[in-house]
């Protein structure tokens, strides 16, 4: 896979995640992964992208990792 294409796919995943969080508010990582059904590790890669851009917050509730937009 070419690097440029890979970066584009990560950016697209980040956009899907951002829109999902905008529409749904705070959600658990497991629920989001199930509902978005992104291939491979693109959920984690997209979250990394958004985290690096300081657009999301993480918290811990019981055994769940919760994610929301800033």
A few lines on this structure:
The protein is of the alpha+beta class and 70 residues long. The protein is built from three helices and three strands.
Blueprint of the fold:
Layout: H1 3-24, E1 27-28, H2 29-36, H3 42-52, E2 56-61, E3 64-69
Antiparallel strand pairs: 1-3, 2-3
Helix pairs in contact: 1-3
The secondary structure category is alpha+beta
CATH class: Mainly Alpha
Shape: globular
Average pLDDT = 94
Kindly identify the CATH topology.
Arc Repressor Mutant, subunit A
Report the major sheet.
3 strands, antiparallel
Classify the helix fraction into a percent range: 55-70%
The number of E-state strands comes to 3
The CA-CA distance between the termini, in Å, is 32 Å
Radius of gyration, in Å, reads 12 Å
CATH superfamily: Winged helix-like DNA-binding domain superfamily/Winged helix DNA-binding domain
Count of distinct structural domains: 1
Order of helices and strands: HEHHEE
Number of helices: 3
| Share of β-strand residues | 15-25%
The oligomeric status of these chains comes to single chain
CATH architectural type: Orthogonal Bundle
Low-pLDDT ranges: none
Widest sheet, order of strands: 1-3-2
